[in-house]
Structure formats: structure tokens, C-alpha cells
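QA checklist item 7 of 12: single-chain prediction sanity check.
[x] sequence parsed
[x] length recorded as 99
[x] structure emitted
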Amino acid sequence: MHQKEIEKLQAEKEKVERQLAQEQHKIQRLENRAAYYEKGERRKRAHRLITRGAAIESVAPQTKDLSESAFYAFAEQVFALPDTQRLLTEAVSNHAGGD
């Protein structure tokens, strides 16, 4: 191989390595962005669960005295009632997409 060919191949290698590094940085930025959004969704869910739990305790303070398993059993019974199902369906249809 001639010296010029070796220099040309080394320059091409360096160029490809720079492009690889750029693509790896791009992947890292995308992964960081995905993690940021996922973390935000978890925070929103946690906030929603906390505020809804507080709302339940506000309208039915006796629920504070239930164990977790007793509360779940109670909630399952309440949400299985036909009137509750009807009211929930109405609430969802009246407020679809909103808070």
C-alpha cells in the first residue's frame, strides 16, 4: 500500500468514528428524553392516586380506619353496584378527556 492510500483510509476511519460517536450521543439523548417523559408520567400517576385517595377519605372519612385489603374489598363491592357503574359511566362520558 502506498502512503497516500494509508492516509486516505485513516482519514476515512476517523470520519466514520466521529459519525459513530455522534450517533451514540444521539441515542443517549433519545434515551435520556424517554426516561424524562417516563418519570413525568410516573409522577402524574402518583399525584393522581394521592389526590383521588384524599378525595375518597374526604367524602368517606371512615375509610381511614380500614386496612388496605379491607379497603380494596370495600372498593370492589362499591364499584360492582349497578348504580355506581351507571354513575361512573355517566361521569366518564360527561368529562371525557378532562380533569
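[x] summary fact logged: Helices lie at 3-59, 68-80, 82-94.
[ ] second reviewer sign-off
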